[in-house]
Amino acid sequence: MPGAVIVGAQWGDEGKGKATDLLGSRVDYVVKFNGGNNAGHTVVIGDQKFALHLLPSGILTPGCTPVIGNGVVVDLRVLFEELDGLAERGVDTSDLLVSNAAHIIAPYARTLDNVTERFLGKRKIGTTGRGIGPAYADKINRLGIRVGDLFDEALLRDKIEGALVAKNHLLVKVYNRRAIGVDEVADELLAYRDRLEPHVADTSLVLNNALDEGDTVLFEGGQATMLDVDHGTYPFVTSSSATAGGACTGSGVGPTRIDSVIGIAKAYTTRVGEGPMPTELHDQWGDRLRDVGHEFGTTTGRPRRCGWYDAVITRFASRINGLTDIVLTKLDVLTGIEEIPVCVNYEVDGVRYQDLPLDQAAFAAAKPVYESFPGWTEDISGCREFSDLPQAAQDYVKAVEELSDCRISTIGVGPGRDEVIQINDLLHAR
Hints:
Helices cover 31% and strands 20% of the residues. By secondary structure, it is α/β, with parallel strands linked by helices. It has a ten-stranded mixed sheet, sandwiched between helices. Strands 14, 16, 17 and 18 form a four-stranded mixed sheet that branches. It has a two-stranded antiparallel ribbon with strand order 3-4. A hairpin with a 7-residue loop joins β19 (408-412) and β20 (420-422). The longest helix has 22 residues, at 153-174. It is globular, with a radius of gyration of 22 Å.
């Protein structure tokens, strides 16, 4: 059976959780391989809505083992708040596995995230303030604390002390904040040790053994391609590798084990936070997409910036990730719009670009070049076959597919688990 990667093909919030949940019982393991609790998935099952931030969507599927990989940064307080919340709603979370090599978001990372963002003023990145960036910075600077460190208290305290030497100077002398003590950090982290221990594993070994045994492993990315630290709209990006390549480094599974790469894209475009977004709408159409699509962040509640479908960035995502399939979500949100524009190219200083401009300034100045397609008025939420869609909706999907350089295999026509049109099998082996 295959190893499959799910990644966002835009700026996040595309519906990756629903896509993961859609595969349901066919998947044996679901792995979160990057990010932390700075993003979220909303999954609707029957009349229940689940908002997940740190946990993989597979936590909701009986018989599926959810895994937090080594590429994730873990806020232990948030982890157990989510687990407790699910337990109260009758969800069994005992099978969760957490990599011993995953990094922990220490309390001082959250503090630094917030004070640094405020200090940047108009140059702010638009972070969620969850400590994600500082935790990844510590990881790269080799000052990080890993899950496995909790089980050696002397080592843990030594690492915390080493990390706080420079941080306390920064907090006190630059940001006029109080110094943070080693004991308060250690005590907070150690309070979770006993509850965490049954979940800790060498998840790289577990996943490779599972693939050897023929199990299906789904790698679920947080954020999205355009927020990837290498390939996104830098510096307005996240601090981790949100593309398909990150699935390998963030889980300890080699690239030859991946059979399909599934990109999730909305039938329009949204973004949260700062940074350029060529198709952003500041008019009644942007308001309509936000209201009808319920475009507010799962984690932060922030209203999302909304715009028409941007085929330039989806083509880019297809190339960067090696997409084999696209799941097109929220097609139903476009119902009732007479003419639906799609960005097919950019224009910068009179020059047309079919692909992303080379430099940041050009991308920030890019103007969308639109091609419009007829809309439809029929309710499509009950459609289960592609042929059930109104002809105008079929034509829109076909046009988006061609412009995006990747086949569309699934279409979301409503928020519910079953409100989808399945065209091609997403779990196909090479």
